[in-house]
Amino acid sequence: MTSQLHKKGEIWSARFSEPMSDLVKRYTSSVFFDKRLALIDIEGSLAHSAMLSAQQIISKDDDAAIQRGMEQIRSEIIRDEFEWQIDLEDVHLNIEARLTALIGDAGKKLHTGRSRNDQVATDIRLWLRVEIDRIIALLKSFRGVLLDLAERNSDTILPGFTHLQVAQPVTFGHHLLAYVEMFTRDTERMLDCRKRVNQLPLGAAALAGTSYPIDRRQVAKILGFDGICANSLDAVSDRDFAIEFTAASALIMTHFSRLSEELVLWMSPGVSFIDLADRFCTGSSIMPQKKNPDVPELARGKTGRVNGHLVALLTLMKGQPLAYNKDNQEDKEPLIDTVDTVVDTLRIFTEMTSGITVNSDTMRAAASQGFSTATDLADYLVKRGLPFRDAHEAVAHVVRICVDRGHDLLDLNLGKLRAILPEVASLLGDDVFNCLTLEGSVASRNHAGGTAPEQVRAAIIAARTKLSL
Ligand code: ARG
Question: Which end of the chain is more exposed for a tag (fewer CB within 10 A), N or C?
Fold first, then answer.
C-alpha cells in the first residue's frame, strides 16, 4: 500500500502531510558517518533474518532471498558502488531500501520484530567489539616493542627526575617498564570493557520488546555475543559501553601524551638522550637545521580530542530519559574518531619506538650531574647508625659545599669528605665511594619493583608472560 506521499526515500510519509524540509534532512541524516557500520549492519540483519525464519515468523524462501540480496549489497559496498542517499537518512534505511529494490516483498519483511533502535545499538556493539580486539592486539605489539627496548637497556643509566630536577639515577629499562605497566593496565581495561560491550540488544525492538515469538539467544549465538541485554528499555538506550570505551581510550592517549612529552624532551638538542628515525620527524620550512619530533607532539595534541569525545559522550547521555532518543545518533562520530585516533597512534608508536636510537653516554653523563647519588650517601650514614634526618642534613651540607666549589660528590676523596663532615667522620670509610657511583646506586635498589638491572631483567620476564593476556 502506497500513499501519494510515500515516494522513494520517505519511509514514514503516510503519516505526514508535507515532505521533510531539506534543511531537516541534512540535519537529521547520519549516513555520511554511520555508513562505516554498513558491513556489520548486514551481519546483524542476516542473523535476525535467520532467526525469523527458524522461528517461522518469515518463510525460508524469504530468508534465502534476504541472504542473496544482502550478498549483492555487500559486494556493492566493498566495490564502492553502493549509492548512499541522504534522503534515506542512515545506513540502516539505505541498506533496507536497496534490499527491497533488489528482492521485492521479502525485503520488506526483514524489519519484522525489529526497530532501528535495537538495530543500531547492536551494530555499534558489534563494530566496537572488532575495534576493541584490534586495539588489544596493537597494545600487545607495542608493549612487546617497549619490552625489547627495555631489555637492550636494562643496564643503561639515566637520571630519574622529580619536578623535572635530577633526583636519583635509574636504569632506562626500568623507566620504560613504567610505560609497560600503564599500557598493560590499558589492555586490562579494554578487556574488561569488552565484556559489557558484548551483550545483544536486538529483540528490544523500539523499546518494549516485540509480540513475535523471537529467539534472542539464537541471534546472540550467531553474532558471537556473550549474552543478551536483560531489559529492553536499557538495551536501546544504554551507551555506557561507549563511554567506558572512550574513557579507557582517553587513558591510553594520556599515557601516550606522557611518553610523548618525554620523547620530545629527550630529543631536544640540550638533552639528546635519544634520537627518532628521520622518517618520523619533519623539517622546518625556514630553519634548515631543524628536525622536529612532530609525531609525539601530535599524539600529545590528539589526547585532547579523545578527552573531548569522552566529555561529549557523557554530556550526550546526561539527563536522557528512557528509552531511545535521537540524541544517541551523536554517539557515532566521537566513537569512530576515538577508535581511529587510538589505532593510528598505537601503530605509529610501535614502529617509531622500535627504531629509537639511545645515546647511553649522554644519559650517563647527565646522571652524573645534579648530585643524583646524594640519597645514597645519606643511606650509607644511616646504615652506620646515624638517624635519617641527621644524615639528610649532613649530606645537604656536603652538596651545598660542592655547589659552592663547583664540583660533584664523586670529585671528593675520603679526606675531603671527612673534613666537610667532622662530626660523622668516624662513620665514613673508603667504601662510601662504592655507593656514590651510578652503578652502585642503581644496583643497590635490588628489590621487587626497584631499578637494579637484575630486577629489570626479572620484571621483563614477568611482563612478557602477561603479554598473552
Ligand atoms: N540513525 C539512528 C541512530 O543512529 C538510528 C535509530 C533511529 N531511531 C529512531 N527512532 N529515529 O541512532
Answer: N
Band (283; pLDDT cuts 50, 70, 90): confident
44: which residues sit within 8 A by CB, 6+ positions away?
119, 122, 123, 126, 202, 223
The answer to whether residue 164 scores a pLDDT higher than 60 is: yes
Supply the CATH classification number for the domain 367-467: 1.10.40.30
Given a cut of 90, is residue 289 above it in pLDDT? no
Q: Is the CB of 120 under 6 A from ligand 1?
A: yes
Q: Is 344 helix (H, G, I), strand (E, B) or coil?
A: helix
In the predicted model, what is the mean pLDDT of residues 388-396? 96
Give the distance (Å) from ligand 1 centre to CA of residue 9: 16
> 328 CB under 6 A from ligand 1?
yes
Catalytic residue numbers, as ranges: 163, 284
Rounded distance between C-alpha atoms, residue 444 and residue 375, angstroms: 12
As a whole number of angstroms, the distance between CA 329 and CA 309 comes to 14
CATH class of residue range 117-365: mainly alpha
Q: Is pLDDT of 11 > 70?
A: no
Q: Identify the CATH assignment for 2-112 out of 3.90.105.10, 1.10.1200.10, 3.10.320.10, 1.10.275.10.
A: 1.10.275.10
pLDDT at 3: 40
Between the CA of 116 and the centroid of ligand 1 the distance, in Å, is 6
Domain coordinates in residue numbering, the chain: 2-112, 117-365, 367-467
Residue bearing the CA closest to ligand 1, atom 11: 326
Atom 5 in ligand 1: which residue has the minimum CA distance? Answer: 116
77 CA distance to ligand 1 centroid (A)? 21
Closest CA to 468 of 141, 44, 156, 94: 141
CA–centroid distance, 29 to ligand 1, in Å, is 9
Tell me, using a 6 A CB cutoff, whether residue 90 lines ligand 1.
Answer: yes
Best mean pLDDT range from 9-13, 232-236, 278-282, 411-415: 232-236
Shortest-distance Cα residue to atom 3 of ligand 1: 329
Grid coordinates in use for 431?
Answer: 667504601
Give the three cell numbers for residue 59: 518463510
